[in-house]
Recover the amino acids of this structure.
């Protein structure tokens, strides 16, 4: 976990410390090479943001036991890591969080099975957290949205004419949905006040949207040593993220001369695309949208009961907008 981040939030830091140890026992696979890779992913410095938001929303209620909350938080991180393993297959990524990916070392087939295995481990933890069919159905619905969002991305790959609305729909079905699930399940499992439950999903969707937008920004303007992934990795795999989508309308002709090459683009072509995105202010435009979505989340958080968890939610959400990894 990112201890530097979470030590600023003593209300949840101890739970996340214990969660990290619990996760290593929650994911058991007899195939030792794949198992060791999964454990490396779980130990390799993830921020545990989704479990963190889960615990912060759970602080608004008191109904759940520590064991139920730990299983609920573990489910979210396991689901997240499972989607990352599948993402690496789709994007043909060589590394993840500084660790060589499963698909690169053991092949795409084994990576797909590893991701599928993580989904079974996810539902195992869901059932440890609750036997309420309504809450279980919420997990099923969220996973359905996440997976259809992943499939929906295929329709946007290499699409120079993709709209902002199409981009937002795709983000809502992937990154944002998992944040929304984390916030809602924290409130639901702890039986927080109805007003908190009503706002939780909206807050999670806004946070997740802003988070993905900043991820897109870092793909063009980040430091690979901090982000632990190559710059312009999305562009190489045909994913036209927010800074590029906002810059393309400013000079469709010049962008098209490069993007029409698709997967045949050279390193020089990719550098030229990045230069065009810079020239036409794609990154500042994307940062403004990320700020707008963060403000939307902050406004919703401000409506929650005035307790420490609300202050922590506000501070954490504000910090994520200025992160560099």
């Amino acid at each position: 976990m990112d201890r530097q981040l979470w030590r600023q939030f003593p209300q949840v830091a101890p739970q996340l410390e214990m969660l990290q140890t619990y996760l290593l026992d929650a994911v058991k696979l007899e195939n030792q090479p794949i198992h060791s890779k999964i454990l490396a992913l779980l130990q390799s410095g993830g921020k545990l943001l989704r479990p963190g938001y889960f615990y912060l929303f759970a602080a608004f209620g008191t109904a759940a036991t520590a064991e139920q909350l730990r299983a609920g938080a573990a489910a979210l991180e396991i689901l997240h890591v499972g989607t990352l393993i599948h993402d690496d297959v789709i994007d043909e990524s060589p590394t993840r969080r500084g660790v060589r990916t499963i698909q690169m070392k053991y092949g795409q087939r084994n990576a797909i099975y590893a991701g599928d295995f993580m989904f079974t481990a996810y539902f195992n933890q869901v059932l440890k957290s609750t036997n309420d069919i309504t809450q279980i159905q919420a997990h099923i619905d969220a996973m359905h949205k996440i997976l259809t969002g992943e499939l929906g991305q295929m329709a946007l790959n290499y699409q120079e004419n993709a709209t902002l609305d199409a981009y937002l729909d795709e983000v809502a079905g992937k990154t944002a949905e998992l944040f929304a699930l984390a916030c809602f399940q924290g409130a639901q499992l702890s039986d927080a006040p109805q007003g908190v439950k009503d706002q939780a999903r909206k807050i999670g969707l806004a946070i997740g949207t802003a988070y993905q937008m900043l991820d897109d920004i870092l793909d063009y303007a980040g430091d690979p040593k901090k982000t632990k992934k190559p710059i312009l990795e999305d562009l190489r795999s045909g994913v036209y993220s927010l800074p590029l989508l906002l810059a393309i309308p400013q000079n469709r002709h010049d962008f098209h001369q490069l993007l029409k090459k698709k997967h045949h683009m050279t390193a020089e072509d990719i550098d030229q695309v990045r230069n065009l995105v810079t020239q036409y202010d794609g990154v500042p435009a994307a940062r403004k949208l990320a700020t707008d979505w963060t403000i939307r989340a902050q406004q919703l958080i401000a409506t929650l009961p005035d307790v420490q968890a609300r202050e922590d939610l506000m501070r954490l959400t504000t910090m994520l907008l200025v992160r560099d990894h």
About this structure: The first helix runs from residue 3 to 6. The two ends are 13 Å apart (CA to CA).
